Every structure is written in C-alpha cells, then in structure tokens.
Amino acid sequence: MNNDVSNKVAIIGGTGPQGKGLALRLALAGVSVVLGSRDPAKAAETAQQLIATLAEQDCKADITGLSMEDATKAADDLVILSVPYSGHDATLTALAPLLVGKTLVDIVVPLAPGNPKAVVMPAAGSVTESAQLLLGDDIPVVGALHNVSAVTLNDLSRGINCDILVCGNDLDAKKRVMALIEKMGTQAYNAGLAESARCVEALTPILIRLNISKDVPFSHAGVRICPPDH
Amino acid sequence: MNNDVSNKVAIIGGTGPQGKGLALRLALAGVSVVLGSRDPAKAAETAQQLIATLAEQDCKADITGLSMEDATKAADDLVILSVPYSGHDATLTALAPLLVGKTLVDIVVPLAPGNPKAVVMPAAGSVTESAQLLLGDDIPVVGALHNVSAVTLNDLSRGINCDILVCGNDLDAKKRVMALIEKMGTQAYNAGLAESARCVEALTPILIRLNISKDVPFSHAGVRICPPDH
Q1: CB A33 within 8 A of CB A23
Q2: pLDDT digits (tens, 9 = 90+) for A129-153
Q3: B136 exposed, middle or buried (CB, 10 Å; 0-12, 13-18, 19+)?
Q4: N or C terminus of chain A with fewer C-beta within 10 Å?
Q5: Model ipTM?
Q6: Which of B189, B218, B220 sits opposite A210 (nearest CB)?
Q7: CA–CA separation, B30 vs B17, rounded Å?
Q8: What are phi and psi of A11, to 5 degrees?
C-alpha cells in the first residue's frame, strides 16, 4: 500500500456493507478511498480492517477513514453516497456546501420500510432526482451502482455479475462515473437522464425478491444487458 | 399445420411488429394464436403471411385473424394486448365485457410521444396498473414481455436474448403467463405485484436508448437476470 495515488474517491456511509464492498473493489482497481462516517473512529477502524482484507493482494491504493465532512473534502471529484434512505436527505443537506466543485454519485435505493421487496419512491420521482433538486444544478448528481449485491462486492473470489446502469443530467459527470465503474471490471451503460433512476432504483427490490424466492435457484442475482444471441 | 391444439391465445393488435413476432414464436412452441385487429381482413391476411413464414418449420399450431372482439372471444384464457399506448385504454374499455373469465396479458409500454427513449407513466403508476383499475379486480391483469425486441422476436434464426419480468397481483395468472413464456424458450421471472410494472415498463426506453447509442456496440439489447459469477 502507498498513498501516491492522486485519484481519491469518498464513500459516505462507507462503513456499511455496500460501502465496504465498493471500497475493496475500488482499492483493488488502484483507486484510493476515503470512508466517511458519522463516527470517524469507526471509519478509521473499518479502513484498517479493509486494508487487512487486502493484505495479500497486489493493491497499490489506500483506504482511510474520516468524518463524513472530512471525507467529502478529501475527494478529488467523486463522492459516493451510500447511506440508508432514511438518512439520505439530511446527510446531503449537511454535506451540500462541501460538494461544490465535486460530483455526487448517489447509490441509494428507497426501499420500503420493513419491506425490501418494494420501493417507496420520493416525490421527485427517484432518489437521484431528489438529490439533484436538493443540491441544485451546479453540483452534478449521477445515479449508479443501485443493483449490485453487497455480498458480491465483498466476495473478492467472484467477479461482479451485474452491469451498472448510470443515469443523470450531466453527461461528462456520467462518463467519469462510468470510467470509475469499469475500473472495477464490470460494464457501465449510460441509461439516460436522472429520471431513468425511477426504473433503475426500482430494479433493486425486484432482484431482492428473486433472491428471496424459493422458485429461483440462486441468490445475489445481478442484471446484465445482453447483445442478440448468435 | 392443423387446428387440434386446444390451447389458444389471442393477440390484440396482432398485426404490429411485436404481435407478429409473438405469434410466430408461440405457434412454433405449439400454441395456436388468434390475431385481433380493428381490420379483420388485415388480421386474416397477416395470419396467412405468418403461416407462410413458418411453412418450412415443423409447426403444429395454427394462426388465424379476426376482429379484436372475435379474437378475444376465441381465446381460451390468455389475451395479449399489444397496441400502441395511445389506443390502450379505449381498446381495453371496448373489450372489457369480453374479458370476463379470461386473463389480460398487458405488454404495452407508455413511450413518450415522439421520444422512444423516455416513458410518460400513466397516473395509476404503470400501464399494467391502469389496466387492472380499468378492468376491475375480477379480471386478472399480468404485465409481461415489455422488454423483448420485436426485431428479435421476428428473427427466427435467433434465440430470445431477454429474460421476461412478469408482474401482477394474481399469482395464479402470473404462473400461467410464465408457463406460456417459457414455452418460447426464454426464462420468465415473477417480478412481484403490478406496481413492479413501473420499473419493468420503464426499462424498455433504456434499452432503446442503448440500441440507438453509438457507444454500445450492438442493437436489439435484452436484459437478463444473472446468477453469481463462478
């Protein structure tokens, strides 16, 4: 491990399963990660655990842990938001002034309280659209990484069995996020404007339903875009 | 060809590309099809063309063409609705009395007028939910087959590169539709209640966007549910 990677991404809510899995995958891809948590000591401890997990890998990137605010400040550009939906708007409101000049990558899915097989979409249409409204047009919001299983992200013996549908109103910002995702070895697709998040976010509870179903012979399902059969 | 197949499905709007492709695939799977059109002569002519297309195949099912009303009456159970969204509600209102005791399979996607890369969802949330509201709870509505390319369906040299996400509030009806779909050689998944159609219908313009994009190296994209990588 060393610290000489200029490319540094923040993951806010980085001590949860999704955040930890993304941190591992990004670090393995050579991208340094700063975990942000309400509890900076927990963020630092989680970062040490993740570094230990990667001890036997040829990993050239670093993982550190800070407060949400300091992690946001430390990001070069991309700040990934990975908090439970219940804390989404309050977290963003607090971080908004620090996000000026950066890009928010919103991966939050508005699962129905007590029912992960359903969503309750916010009034704006989707979480991605809510975030864009809340932050204003000067801070680009990109919706991405909603459908990939946290278990898969954390199981480094497996590839990522899920293409990533990326949406948002700023094409350049989407391209930067797609480039980051493709470093993790999976395919990213431009799924259109922020309103496409109404579909993409709502795919997650459908996958969760399939994972729970006794009629489907596997769990941790992903979704892939397929070319025509030959 | 012969007429001794008891299992008979109607396709309303069956002279369009999606309807014709489904008719071919179903007939090849041994399911007889009645195309329904506002113009019964056109329906009969289309049926003859499809039979000619299948002339060299070992096809044991029949394809016929009738008015929308007579095709609905002729169906044993499943009536597939495949009309442009602009005609969806009026068609269903006209056919509603004939659908008592049958199951509606709604495959209509509410593409935005003039922009196939977007949807304008109806007030009920989705077309499937609109149809269920319109028909009342005694006639089950199943949403399905929204994402499969008409070009793919009509190209019998190819398999169907798209899993089918099936949604609706009546589990038995969904199971009958899933069994029909699997006869065509593709996988059907129970994607949950009718409200899941908000996601599934909105996937179609995302696929259309990818088909049009110069950045995606193929057209006629499908979507598949993937087990974990090994």
Answers
A1: yes
A2: 999 999 999 999 999 999 999 999 9
A3: exposed
A4: C
A5: 0.94
A6: B189
A7: 20
A8: -125, 110
* Tokens matching residue B117: 């890369």
CA angle at residue A33 from A28 to A37, to 5 degrees? 135
Look at residue B207 and give its three-state secondary structure: helix
- B106-150 pLDDT tens trace: 999 999 999 999 999 999 999 999 999 999 999 999 999 999 999
Which residue in B has a C-alpha nearest to residue A204's C-alpha? B199
Give the relative orientation of helices A127-135 and A197-212 as an angle to the nearest 10 degrees.
Answer: 140
Average pLDDT along chain B:
95
Say how far apart CA A188 and CA B55 lie, in whole Å: 42
Q: Do B227 and A215 touch (CB under 8 A)?
A: no
Output the six-digit token pair for B75. 């169906």
Q: What are the CA-CA distances from residue A169 to residues A141, A173, A191, A193, B134 (Å)?
A: 8, 9, 11, 5, 35
Residue type, A40: P
- Report the distance separating Cα B171 and Cα B52, nearest Å: 37
